[in-house]
Every structure is written in C-alpha cells, then in structure tokens.
Amino acid sequence: MFEHLVIFKFNSSLTKEHEQVLLGKLQALKQTIPGIIELSAGINVTEETENRHGYSLGLRVTFESQEALRQYGPHPAHQDFVKALDGVLDNVVVVDYPLTIA
C-alpha cells in the first residue's frame, strides 16, 4: 500500500464556497478512481496556529499499490480537481510513502 498526503495553501481569492467545492471534489475521488482503499479530506482546524503557515485543506489517500498511485495523477477526475485549483493555489506540499503497519 502507498500513502499520499497533500496539504494546500490558497491565495486570498479563494472563497469559503469554492473551498467547500474543492473539498467535495476531493471526497468524490474515492468513488471514481480505482485503487483507492481509503480517502479522507478536510479543512484545517488546528489550534496550533503557529504551525499552520496558511495551509487550509488536507488530503490523505491510501492506495492499494504504488502503481495505483501512479495511475491517480493522470486520471480525468483528478485532473478535473487540478483544474479547479487554477488561480487560487499558492502552494502545495505532497508526501508519498510506502505504508508499513507497525
């Protein structure tokens, strides 16, 4: 299995309504893209405000394999989400790693 973590930092042009649309698009990916075992996404509500650094939306996806993760990027549903980021994204951080259960 492979874990895919993403955090998004948006510019000031993003409205709360658009952020909710983006969240909904992320949550819908599980039903659309093969190879996803588990997916969670949400608005950052951390009380550690000094560590937030402007990142307001998080995504965690568990894929059945590294190949499933590779197929995710070019999938049309994922590309639709990427297009929805046009003009509102300041920065994104991505971490992918093989999942080992301790």
Automatic annotation (TrEMBL):
InterPro entries: Dabb, Dimeric_a/b-barrel, HS1/DABB1-like. The lineage of its organism: Bacteria, Bacillati, Bacillota, Bacilli, Bacillales. Pfam families: Dabb. Transmembrane segments: none annotated. It comes from Paenibacillus baekrokdamisoli. SMART domains: Dabb. SUPFAM superfamilies: Dimeric alpha+beta barrel (SSF54909). This is Uncharacterized protein. Homodimer. It comes from the Bacteria.
